[in-house]
Amino acid sequence: MSDRQLHVAIVGATGAVGVEMIRCLERRQFPVGKLSLLASKRSAGKTASFQGKDLVIQELTPDSFAGVDIALFSAGGSISKEFAPHATAAGAWVVDNSSAFRMDPDVPLVVPEINPDDARHAPKRLIANPNCSTAIALMALWPLHQAFGVTRVFASTYQAVSGTGAQAIEELAAQSRQWAAETDGAWDDARVSTPPSVYPHQIAFNVLPQVDSFLETGYTKEEMKLENEGRKIMHHPDFRASVTCVRVPVFRAHSLAISAEFAKPITVAAARAVLASAQGLQVVDEPELQRYPMPLDLAGQDDCAVGRLRQDCALENGLAFWVVGDQLLKGAALNAVQIAELLV
Length: 344
Fold this sequence. Notes:
With about 350 residues, the protein is α/β, with parallel strands linked by helices. The chain has two domains: about 5-130 and about 335-344, NAD(P)-binding Rossmann-like Domain (Rossmann fold, 3-Layer(aba) Sandwich); about 135-165 and about 195-325, 2-Layer Sandwich (Dihydrodipicolinate Reductase, domain 2), CATH 3.30.360. It has nine helices and 14 strands. Strands 5-2-1-6-7-8 form a six-stranded parallel sheet, with helices on both faces. A hairpin with a 2-residue loop joins β3 and β4. α1 packs across α9 and α4 (about 130-150) packs across α6 (about 220-235).
């Protein structure tokens, strides 16, 4: 693709990830000559700001991609399956944030810091963005794998409500306000009277050990993504991951506790040296000063952060660590724009 100014389209421009895509394009000075913002019929006519101008959001149709060079999709799997073929047929490159094409063998699944060449050789002009928690986990796991050869991991996620969408953010906020109003600060009963609508149970002052739907194995679909997507991204077919995904009452940024086993001996000092030189990753690991990565600090940040490094006491050649990242950015919008930058 040449150095000319490009026509970029964002599908799902009014969603949480779509909004961040607009911001990322502007902040990273992507060579946008024209930006088309596309959404559902009910959102058409609204406006969004880009480079100091208000752009009118247009209704997504099969004919929306004439002249588009790159289309960033973040409107759900069914929309991607229906409209991505129209975009590629019109000559656009598609970067899709949904799960629709992630495991398609002909569609690269890309984290630019890990497998950039996969994006440059996409046979269908279609590239998939990984699951948010997978991308954040691999930002720390990949450099360690390069040095020591990861074999398996055991992990628990602590996933913010913004991973579900705007309605989940409002549900957490509304429940928190309602609790404060109804209980007058009493802490011994954290329940609110209004039934939840987004989640199966109240999320405020609670944790839900379920993200996505359950499979016959007892794992959820979300819990299998680190293994399945990790194998594809790292080109590591023997990689194994046992994961428990948990929704927590945090607005933004996902956290993961990971215990990883490696083929080669690993020490905390050697791991720290490897992680300190990794692209897009900060090492925040001074527990004696209570310094470690937290979602409150990583919200709105491009980089992920890793800390709580320690020798795993239950695994041979094992390392335990804690990694945090903004799932709307590195877990979604930023990663998609970085893929688009590879194409440029």
